[in-house]
């Protein structure tokens, strides 16, 4: 007997819309933003968390997918004795930055080994 995962249909829809948005980013930026907006709205409506890797690729202002040299420009900047990766959306101009130190672990808690309690097959 298969175990029913709560929100599975919503996760499948989010995945599909994310893939379409990524494919449309270089062809039609307005349509890409529309699909990115749908991804965020579906997650909010169903009270689901978007995976951090997907969330980092969505612009917070216009909700388009951030792809380097297509819809965003990436720079590495020094900020208060630490390095940061900064993305600038080519559509709306919004800036997004993340820390990038070599010696520190900047992964989100969900991506770390201690976050996994049990793997269900």
UniProtKB/TrEMBL annotation:
MF-aspect GO terms = endonuclease activity; hydrolase activity; metal ion binding
Could you list this entry's UniProt keywords, alphabetically sorted: Cytoplasm, Endonuclease, Hydrolase, Metal-binding, Nuclease, tRNA processing, Zinc
InterPro entries reported for this sequence: RNP4 (IPR016432), Rpr2/Snm1/Rpp21 (IPR007175)
Q: Name one GO biological process term.
A: tRNA 5'-leader removal
Q: Which domain of life is it from?
A: Eukaryota
Please provide one cellular component term from the Gene Ontology annotations of this protein.
nucleolar ribonuclease P complex
- Keyword Nuclease appears in the UniProt entry: yes
In terms of Gene3D superfamilies, this protein maps to: 6.20.50.20
A Pfam family cross-referenced in the UniProt record is: Rpr2
Member of which family? Belongs to the eukaryotic/archaeal RNase P protein component 4 family.
This chain's protein is named Ribonuclease P protein subunit rpr2 isoform X1
| Native species | Bombyx mandarina
């Amino acid at each position: 007997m298969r175990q029913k995962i709560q929100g599975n249909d919503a996760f499948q829809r989010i995945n599909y819309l994310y893939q379409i948005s990524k494919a449309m980013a270089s062809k039609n930026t307005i349509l890409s933003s529309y699909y990115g907006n749908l991804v965020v709205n579906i997650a909010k409506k169903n009270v689901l968390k978007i995976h951090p890797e997907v969330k980092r690729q969505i612009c917070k202002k216009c909700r388009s997918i951030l792809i380097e040299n297509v819809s965003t420009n990436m720079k590495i900047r020094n900020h208060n004795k630490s390095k940061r990766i900064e993305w600038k959306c080519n559509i709306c101009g919004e800036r997004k930055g993340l820390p990038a130190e070599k010696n520190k672990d900047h992964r989100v808690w969900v991506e770390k080994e201690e976050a996994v309690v049990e793997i269900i097959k």
